[in-house]
Design a protein that fits this description.
about 5% helix; 3 helices; 2 domains; eight-stranded antiparallel barrel; single chain; mainly beta; Lipocalin
Amino acid sequence: MKRLLYALFLLPFLFAACDKNDGDTNPIVTPPAEPIVGVWNSENVDIAPGLMATLKTKKIVATFNSNNTYEVVATDSSNTSVTYSGTFSTTAATGTTIRNIVLNQTVPTSVTSTGIYEVNAKGHMKYEVVQTTPAIPGFTAPVASEGFGSTKYNNIALGLTWVQGFVKPSPSTEPIVGVWLSSEDLVAPGLKATLKTKSVAATFNSNNTYVVVATDSSNAVVTYTGTYSTTAATGTTIRNIVLNQITPTSVTSTGIYQVTARGLLTYEVIQTNPAIAGFAAPTVSGGFGSTSYNSFALGATWIQRFVATN
């Protein structure tokens, strides 16, 4: 099992094909760039449940090079890090955008792992592999024809247990842009307790405007509008956000958010202008739950979660 866990940390690289010129009569054809080349992060709910349960993994940073080498740094809940490296090869699978991958790990141990991965239209990656040499008794690798979750133990599919999600820490487009919905258990406990909020629909536009519609338990609706700005934070996919609300009142709110490969937006902000006595906004370094009152962190109280609806 330990060998399997080593294998599950590994990430794929794709071939970066070169231009080819078959003579003066043929044009140079440039194949599309392999989408996996670059730097990817996996944090929070994007970590495979099996890794969280067995190795207490809290973060993975993977660097994929165009020369088909990779380096993966996995950090656990005690902040201990392990680096994995090696080479990889990939092939297309007929009738799907899921690709096959074979990884030849050389550090810290020499093993071969086999599996699948896919980068979707939003630039998010799913990844699932299992060690195949030396083989682990009872385990079979996932295959493109059966999709993610098809890693098996004694012919029983293990579902999401070993499915990993990744996003780029420096995305080409603003991650929060889109339409999001929060309802039931996704609504922040503080909103439920104080405003009886039962759902929040949020639209963040690419022109940096937003519309948030909050509905309470009596079906009364309040619409909030304004503009927003975001900035990246080093070493994490959690980002800073500042909202300048225009309606129904003029206030500024500050906080953090994160969009995961699984289509979940985690969001935590607090009004900062006019300031609310005793309250301090959450920070990237403090993480989600770091909104504080008189220096006491309030935990999950103001953490809001949304799912993408577009």
